[in-house]
Amino acid sequence: MSELLQIEGLTKAYPGVVANDDVALAVGEGEVHALLGENGAGKSTLVKMLYGLVKPDRGTMRFRGQAFTPADPRAARAAGVAMVFQHFSLFEALNVAENVALGMETPPPMRQLAAKIREISNDYGLPLDPARLVGDLSAGERQRVEIVRCLLQDPKLLIMDEPTSVLTPQEVEILFKTLRKLSQEGTAILYISHKLEEIRTLCDGATILRGGKVVAHCNPREKTARELAELMVGGAFNVTDRANRELGDVVLEARGLSLPPMSQFGPSLKEIGFELRAGEVLGIGGVAGNGQEELLATLSGERVSAAGTLWLRGQDISGLGPNPRRARGVLAAPEERLGHAAVPAMSLTENAILTGTLRKKLTRNGFVDQAAAERFAQDVITGFDVRTPGPHVAARALSGGNLQKFVIGREVLQAPEVLIVNQPTWGVDAAAAAAIRQALLDLAAKGAAVIVISQDLDELMEVADRFAALNEGRLSEPRATKGLTIEEVGLMLGGAHGMQEAQL
Amino acid sequence: MIIGGIDIIGLIAILMSASTPVLLAATGELVAEKSGVLNLGVEGMMIMGAVAGFAAAVATGNPVLGFLGGAIAGALMATLFAVITQIFLSNQVASGLALTLFGLGLSALIGKGYEGVRPPPTAKIDFGPLSDIPVLGRIVFSHDWMVYLSLLLVVVVWIVLRYTRVGLVLRAVGESHDAAHALGYRVVAVRFAALAFGGALAGLGGAYLSLVRVPQWTEGMTAGAGWIALAIVVFASWRPWRVLLGAYMFGGITALQLQLQAAGYAIPVHILSMAPYVITIVVLVILSAIHRHGVQAAPASLGKSFHASS
Question: How many independent structural domains does chain A possess?
């Protein structure tokens, strides 16, 4: 196998942080190479340099035997590097063909392009209708648009940044078949993911980054997932402890809960029903954009639903807003931490007041009790190991993982009766994620009812007593997680959303 | 053809000319907004176009150079706005309002010496026997070249936005500047170009007011036409053909109410003067409400500042 890409001594520093420090890496032709690391380990910076979005400070890159310093993404594409982004680089109001055309240097006329999209997408088992608006597509279908856009340029190296986080297990399998086919045809793939099992099944080689430095090159097939995780984290980490819990009475009940879409391309909620008992953790899985945000909004009171659809201990709370619900013990932590769960420009103390004022009595006669508020913020910081100089720091100054710990901790420490969280460990490193999961389990052990909405199925299997799938705004019948197989879960999530396998 | 003291054919002929300033400004603003920038300074760019065009035409004695001067003045104003909002990332709404106030003040200063002066006339195009065709001749073949140019511009903008690569990139930048940047498009450059084009068209519209419609220079002569152009773009759901419809309706009702006043109808003058503004907006609101797209057709990045922070 000849070397397609060779990187040596690559360094990139941002003010206050060295994102990539003397990174070396080689990828052979047709090799599927994994790039592993915690958040902030420097994976994104590395691929951005490869794709011409960021310029390295030092170091050399050689691609197909020649020095490679792409000035911008066009140059990278021209050289044969294509990238599928983690956050899709798609335009919702444009159709599939237009989106594909925007990613090409010299696109053919629209009609030919549409025919070509049909042809390529069917060849690789990723059927697409070129005339549909991207805004109407599911997350899996959007990813297909990105992949097809790359494939049309006949790339030599395909970079994929966490491609499976939005896919059902069946869709992942089909994607892997497509990737293997590409690899057999000689296209190298640089594959970024957190999911270690996936990497072990798919990748031929791996480079592990920690704190911007390469800590290991290895063959992931020869390592266990645990060994890989420890290389990423740089030490052993705890596994959550799931004590046996007694289930109490039904605390929260939804009956025929429906809600119109909140945004132009958003889903509606359709006849959602479930019962939640004290001490129980209900896991709700599903591919992003199937109603998770909407569900959290109705449960937290941000969106009120029709009377008689939501009951707390036999009392109708459907018409109550967030504060009356908080007063009754129903708390929530939404997915988007910056701008939804926390106000970016306000300090941690002020952010603590915003949701904690009722239950922690942080205001008196309309005046903020500054001392009590600071104490509460400090409790959250110490209780959840939030790494920050103090409660006076603005929320946006915290890293994503630290802020996530803060917004979860803020709700947990208010001793809720019902806690609803969406993507509680999204973008949080493994050790902190384990701590957050443990906090949720401890809360349930104390008799609170918890709903965890997440796209991470492993996480749900770890914390939840029962599992339900959210698919196009419908919630499946919850099933006990004990004995539930990943295939069954995949089918509950809606299977492969009309995908077919690549013809090999 | 005269109905109720109103000459219908004459009215339609006047309508096209009366609508031209607003049509030009709205078409330009449509392009700017499609690239994701909300420029509320249309009124200011128009009036600067009006005074600069007037001055250039008087100085050279050539109305064509006058229109050119108007377009350049509008484009310069828009470029100033682009520098403020695209490079220094200042708030677009506040900057746009400031641009309007700035334009109104500066134009009054520049225009001091031009009050009461008559500009060189802009000739109507001679279509020969075509203009003798009954009805059609007077409506279609009786105008100066700017009227035809403004219609041509609508067609060109429509074709470019819908069918060309340039238009696709422009729309992409307006929909999601982050995605466009990630794909390697130069967001700020595209927006500079779109703003300058919008400014040039607003300047042309202003010059048409001072050189053809009125034709003389008076302080504040745009009288809110720039704001109407802005409203038309929004309620036309960012579609060129509906912009044409909105502009012609506004011009039509303006012309009609003047004739109603002249014909001596017992309707209070204030209501008549108000009518074009009210009716245009009401009709466009109804139009955009009927079609599901409505205000949701707005470019998704409209009014948001872009900074390449990756």
Answer: 2
